[in-house]
Amino acid sequence: MSITRREFLESAAAASALAALSGVPGKALAAGGERWVKSVCRYCGTGCGLYIGVRDGKVFAVRGDKDNHNDGYLCLKGFLLPQILTAPTRCLYPMIRKDGKLVRASWDEAMSLVAAKFKEAIEKYGPDSVAFYGSGQGLTEETYVANKLFKAGIRTNNVEGNPRLCMASAVAGYVTTYGKDEPMGCYEDIDHADVFLLVGSNTAEAHPIIFQRIVRRKEKAPGTKVIVLDPRRTPTARIADLHISFKPGTDLAILNAMAYVLVTEGLFDEAFIKNHVVFGEGTETNKSFEDYKAFLAQYTPEKAAEIAGCKAEDIVTAARWFGERGKAAMSMWTMGLNQRTKGVWANNLVHNLHLITGKIGIPGSTPFSLTGQPNACGGVRDGGALSHLLPYGRLIANDKHRAEMEKLWGVPEGTLKPKPGPSTMEMFQKIEAGEIRCIYIMCTNPGQSLPNVGRYRKALQREDVFVVVAEAFHPTRTTELADVVLPAALWAEKEGVYGCSERRYQLLEQAIPPAGESRPDFEILCDLGRRLGLGHLVPFKTPTDIWNEILTICKGTVYDFSGMTRERLRQAHGILWPVPTPDHPGTKWRYVKGEDPLVPADWPHRIKFYGRPDNKAVVWLRPHKGPEEAPDPQFPMYYTTGRVIEHWHTGTMTRTCKELVHANAEAVAEIHPKDAARLGVKTGDKVRITSRRGSEVFKVKVTDTSKENLVFVHMHDDQHLCNLMTIDAVDPVSKQPEFKICAVKVEKV
Amino acid sequence: MRKAPLFILLLPLLLAAAPAKKAMVVHPDVDPNEPCDVCHKEVTPEIVDAWYESKHGMNNVKCFVCHGPLGPEFMRRAPVNRCVGCHGDKEASMALPFFKGKDCFSCHAGHELNPHKLVKGGGK
């Protein structure tokens, strides 16, 4: 059927008129009292825009936001979001542990107890005897209040958050290479890329809407190449033109070998290197391009293939596709690289590929780290809510930065302690050692999600440790360990900002009142501040009050989003920083002249890596190093964990959706057919997986998507804890644990 | 291989016999811990294959997104209000005269879904 242009226009006009009448998203109120409230998905770091449908005071549906980057699409988890709000496991009132059991309490009783315990610890043992452990899922305003209250009020740098477990290596990768954190590219790069390098990322399941955008790019531009580097043949590999499976932990050798091919075959950009790149080793930028070439000589494709157990010609092909002149190359990675004891180095090696080819800062050419949580970037990374950070790129250890923050926060000089606090694993080890006596855990589930979790569950159960958990759900594997549980309002029940993978900040508007007696986290934290005599530091009545203060804190930094007023956020479908003035449109491509307001118009080059004093990025000479714990005769198999598309993190939300609780809910041990034959097991049988740290029984799924001698278990099952076995060894720079690789034995039960 | 119960083997026939308008088809009571395709690869392989090759299959939009959960809320034919979760921009056009008496699947039939624009050579 074909229609004329006039017919099309008439049809479109009629549809538009109908849309205006029918209460579709964007219209505040329609017949029957139906409202559609603009928001963002609660789950992953993609940050898909959506509208929340409210009828009779209840959320009845969500719809993707056509005007946002996700083009109206939602993944299956996002689509089923409304169900989490009314889950029977919602935490609806405060609880206090009495005689070993959590019993209902009033807010005043619970908060009085929390304040008294914190005061007592601070008075007896000093401010470093208390700690805050937050989340990449908290709203920016909430995390900001916690960070300010603990660092400037209580005066401890014991402030950490679960982004340490997921993004710390990406942060350190960006900072060591470019001087500043956060990607320079954006999702729109996907629409321009000719080659995708997906390494350590099961994009199809962990970031489905980004995967869909890659699929669309491939459909529109059939010559587009997708390279997937992953030991497992995940659903992401379905669109791969080249899938390289390798021995876990050997990708550093492969990435160096790709660089070797680029250099030896002349697929590098000499002018770009000359103008924008320096070379370094360790922490010093004291090497040359010639030194780099000499370093790479030990990573011939053949040598790397031998280390990694893959084909040398595949490495050559990957490098040639990536380096082909005139083609835009985009790399994406996530936990496969970050959750490693050499995670920062692995990140550096991806950046190297872009820097030596000059494939950076051009639409379609960018190194793009995918984030796991919806506000790890906006709230914790950018907001500086880790133990070594202060807001918006400032460092605890930097005298000038502390002085600046003391002035901005209106606290006396010397208030902020100069010594960085412990990283996440160190913090929980201090709990284990009895040095930290009180911990406030907000919007996260470390009793399930920490590596080597059995060890830290014991620590949290110490008699002399007081554990406060502010959480929207109960029971969780952390609330069950708590002395006080504070019911937190959930997504749709509160207002605040999320910042996703691409520097896009978006406002989630409140759609319905908080369930039961729950309260937004910022209110709970302000209440605690008042009870600790620190109310003057957190006098906030609304999230907008907090946001307005945040705008003064970011101003003048490289993050500068002071032009992102609350009203503007209400109207917009996300804005990418920097946004230094209210009339600035946002920045798709950072460091790029004509795009980034921080690059002067008279800068002589197309790009300026202004994060570093010499305005140049660093190609680091990082040797291959394997995992902390490789298989041995006693524990002969690799063990790895990850996501499946139906569930998210520890499952506290997705496991309340009736469709999802029946879909891939139980963690099973995915085993290659050859291993299954050797172990004498078939699908449905049970195996015990044991590492040096712990042991758990799982049902078996025999699948050739797994790699021989590798067992995979998903991380979302609260009844089968995959983290009893994972290792708590950390990257020495980022302090991120090596969740992704350890050694286990597998036995038929 | 595990044998499928008789009622599951007969399910395609039962569903095929059900008129499109009568959406109240109750899914047989099956083990809720098994993913849909464990049975359906055996009893309706053509449907699983069609889905897998469709846009929904490529992007992992799995069975329950359209069909809902097992039990009384199971939907044989997804209503428009299910589709608009992702395809909200199409909802207004459903009110046009052309679409009277039709729903999304009147045109986007089966599990292939017949997208408006088929692009050869990419992605699949």
Average pLDDT figure of chain B: 76
Alpha-carbon distance between the two ends of chain A? 62 Å
Helix and strand content put the structural class of chain B at mainly alpha
Spans of at least 5 consecutive residues with low confidence of chain B: 1-23, 117-124
Regarding quaternary structure, how should these chains be classified? heterodimer
Please describe what this structure looks like.
The complex is a heterodimer of chains A (749) and B (124). By secondary structure, chain A is an alpha/beta fold. Chain A is built from 26 helices and 29 strands. In chain A, the strands form 7 sheets. Chain A has a 7-stranded mixed sheet, sandwiched between helices. A 6-stranded mixed β-barrel of chain A has the order 24-28-25-27-26-29. In chain A, helix 5 runs parallel beside helix 22 and helix 13 (301-308) crosses helix 14 (312-323). Chain B has 124 residues and is mostly helical. In chain B, 37% of the residues lie in helices and 0% in strands. Chain B has 7 helices and no strands. Chain B has helices at residues 6-17, 36-43, 45-53, 55-58, 63-67, 80-83, 104-107. In chain B, helix 2 packs across helix 3. Chain B is globular. Chain B starts with 5 loop residues before the first helix and ends in a 17-residue tail after the last helix. Residues 1-23 and 117-124 of chain B have low confidence and may be disordered. The A-B interface holds A 11, 14-16, 18-19, 22, 24-25, 51, 61-64, 66, 72-76, 79-80, 204-205, 208, 211-212, 215, 218-222, 224, 235, 238-239, 645-646, 658-666 and B 32-33, 35-36, 58-62, 64-65, 68-71, 73, 81, 84-89, 91-93, 95-96, 119-123.
